[in-house]
Amino acid sequence: MEPRALLLLVAFAFAVSPVVGQDERALEILEDAVRFLDANEPDSGLTMVDMALREVGPEAPDEVRYYLRSFRAEQLYYHGLYDEAIADAMEAHRIAHSMADSLLVASALNLIGLLHENIGDHLGALPFLEAALAWYPVAGKARFSVSKPHHIHGNLGQSLAELGRHTEALDHLFLSRSLARDAEQARGEAIADWAIGKVLLAQGLPDSALTAFRRAMDLSREHGQGDVLLEIYTSIARAHIDMGDARSAISTLVLGREFESRQDVTPVSRREFHRRSAELFTELGLYREALDAATIRYRMDSLIHRSNKAAIVETVTQLHDTNSELEVQRLQAALYQEAFERVRFSRTVLFLGSILGLLVLLAFYLVYRSRQRGKDRLAELELLRLQQERTIDELRIREQVGRDMHDDLGAGLSALKLRNEMALRTEKDPQRRQHLED
């Protein structure tokens, strides 16, 4: 079934479902959202979570609001909307605190730390990840999937590695690998081995790094982790280059190219593979291969940007609409509570106050929605302008890269031709002259 059709079906189910208790209904909606997230792409998953947030409202149980905020933060992360994702993750963290649930607090802190890692703020990620370990209970139980200890240690190890604190990073990464193995989480174990290899490579130990990379490759291949496996190919090639084995590095990159053309891996993983391949081929002096890899990378980058642009604009618009509606609902709840307290003093005051309050609320709502639509439109136009500027900048960079590569190759070929002609003029041996002419 198409995602749009499935969304309409779920929305219809919301509308016609029988009236049940608020808590039970909220949990039903949450379970529907989780099933949808497990079966669909991030674009549709985010739409589903937004629908669920509108349906349950601000009076839903804390557990439901926690999971919906966490799920939306993850979907925003997949879209690259890190600021908005951090805001949702922080709200999930606040809700978990109010529930006094240490497992959910730890999971929210790990998500916040991961988001900081992805915006390059590794130093800022450390306090959140360390706090996640401190909050993680010895034994805990959650209704839906949450962060595990090997996730937190792995994220902490990679942040420490980026900060150059290699010894501490390896401690956390080895522990992450051990915990993932005990939990039978092959993907987590493979990622830990891969991260260990990168740290060893940074320490100037390419032989040890190669062993870790190959272990991660075997795990990824055995358990069908194509995205992880594709990233490992370029890491192995990097290790071979550091060992001075250019031939093995080239053959590894060729194998990676064959693998990505056969396997069902994400376009983003393919793009990153070709980006790193272009860098490694350039370092090896194979400019034609580097140019081919760079060309594929830029072509895939354009396709990804083109396919995601409409989804990102729609996502930001939906996010603003959802947050605005939730704010109006909170305001309505506060006004109703105030009216309820006034009933203790006088029925007349209640009657007049209720009418006045509803009129003020209606006027405020109309003015607020009018202004919000204008702000949303301005935000959408600004986003489109920024995306167009980014596209122009990328085109300029591609043009410059192409011009530079053309100049370098042309100069090299001219020098080679000149040296060959000079050798022919002085060479007397007929066999060597024939060789030079060929």
Compute the average pLDDT. Answer: 78
SSE series: HHHHHHHHHHHHHHHHH
The computed structural class is mainly alpha
Number-wise, the strands total 0
Report on the structure:
It is built from 17 helices and no strands. Helices cover 85% and strands 0% of the residues. It starts with a helix and ends with a helix. Helix 3 (42-56) packs parallel to helix 15. The chain has 438 residues and is mainly α.
Compact overview of the structure:
With 438 residues, the protein is mainly α. The chain has helices at 3-16, 22-39, 42-56, 62-79, 82-99, 102-118, 122-135, 149-162, 166-182, 186-202, 206-222, 226-242, 246-262, 267-283, 287-342, 347-426, 430-437.
List key phrases describing it.
disordered N terminus; 438 residues; mainly alpha; 85% helix
Give the arrangement of secondary structure elements:
Elements: H1 3-16, H2 22-39, H3 42-56, H4 62-79, H5 82-99, H6 102-118, H7 122-135, H8 149-162, H9 166-182, H10 186-202, H11 206-222, H12 226-242, H13 246-262, H14 267-283, H15 287-342, H16 347-426, H17 430-437
Helix pairs in contact: 1-3, 2-3, 2-4, 3-4, 3-15, 4-5, 4-6, 5-6, 6-7, 6-8, 7-8, 8-9, 8-10, 9-10, 10-11, 10-12, 11-12, 12-13, 12-14, 13-14, 14-15, 15-16
